[in-house]
Amino acid sequence: MGRVTRGRRANQLCPCGSGRAYADCCSPIHGGTAQAPTAEALMRSRFSAFALGDAGYLLRSWHSSTRPERLELASEQRWTRLEIVDTDRGGLLDATGTVTFHAHYREAGRPGTLTERSRFAREDGRWVYLDGEQS
Question: If you classify domain 6-134 with CATH, what class do you get?
Answer without folding.
Answer: alpha beta
